[in-house]
Sodium/hydrogen exchanger 9
Amino acid sequence: LTKFTKLCEFPMLETGLFFLLSWSAFLSAEAAGLTGIVAVLFCGVTQAHYTYNNLSPDSKMRTKQLFEFMNFLAENVIFCYMGLALFTFQNHIFNPLFIFGAFVAVFVARACNIYPLSFLLNLGRKQKIPRNFQHMMMFSGLRGAIAFALAIRETESQPKQMMFTTALLIVFFTVWVFGGGTTPMLTWLQIRL
């Protein structure tokens, strides 16, 4: 639509279509009984690479501002929702062994992704990813809003309630401890701020 039509003459329409097609990916996945969150993730990856580069300069600016604003709103809403869920969800199931195992599994899985993938990327790069950057990627990262959104979808059985409680605790721990420790960790790893 953006490449082979004259949509560039109508920047507002171009931005509107960009947004509506993104939303349609979510709605289509949900209607098919799939996860709309993951559909939006892949839609965003694809659109950032293909669609965004074919927008007119006006539309690029408008689209970027629109999605930055929506990102800001969504981030605030999801973290407010998580805060409320911690205190208002009636069926929390705290299993210390499961929570500890989940923490360990998350960190091991993260390490098994960061270090081998960085090694593979460094094989073909002129500018290598330094070890201290790899440690920082291991320390920081996604804080789990998607994990929270997926876990809260189904909480009718006890195992799902335990999974939801565990996901919520992991998200809060990583937000407060790792999110709050980002600046000291950058200083300790001698990464310029």
Observations:
- The mean pLDDT is 85.
